[in-house]
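Sequence in, structure out.
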Amino acid sequence: MLQQLRIDLHDLGYRPSVAASVAEARDLLERERVAAVLLDLVLDESEDSGFGLLTWIRQHHPGLPVIVLSAAQVNSASIRKAYELGASSYFVKGNVPMAHIYSDLAARLVERGTGRPGTYRFGRLQFDPTRRLMKIGEREARLTQQQAALVLFLAQGSKPATARDLIQAGLFRSNAAHSTVHSALLTLRRRLDELEPGLGPTFVHASARGYSLVAVHE
């Protein structure tokens, strides 16, 4: 099935990358900007390794669509567990046509979230890009158009985005200084702090490798 997936996805215009273990998958997600994940629950010869990787993805890349494929974990408890951990979709290998998987992948890339269509869920934090609205509990904050675009871009890839990445994506003028980008992200963080103290730097994480989003939990 793996070989067929690679051939079909390439023919559909995607650029698939393959990881054969949890360690390889985590390294790939940190090294490359991945738009979605097709996850086999059985990795490293362990039936629980896929669940562990799914948990890690939701913690470190909360906006990344994850489509679960499994031939081993087919009982209702496993399917429920996958969805509880944040799976976007669940398919039992051999029980559905490949075209259904590809159609679901295309839909997830349009929706870009793990909640209802058009809505992102990052733990306790919800984001509605259409209304540019951030919500945590009963508190809400409306973002500017640029701030909403920044959140969307960061949510749609696994690899941390640098100032250069954000400029090349068209979110800033092509000749914008990197300090302008950092200032905009600092303003976004401060806006989120209005929802909850400390929320900004917790959600919009900055490191030497760039900016990324982190799910917000209790």
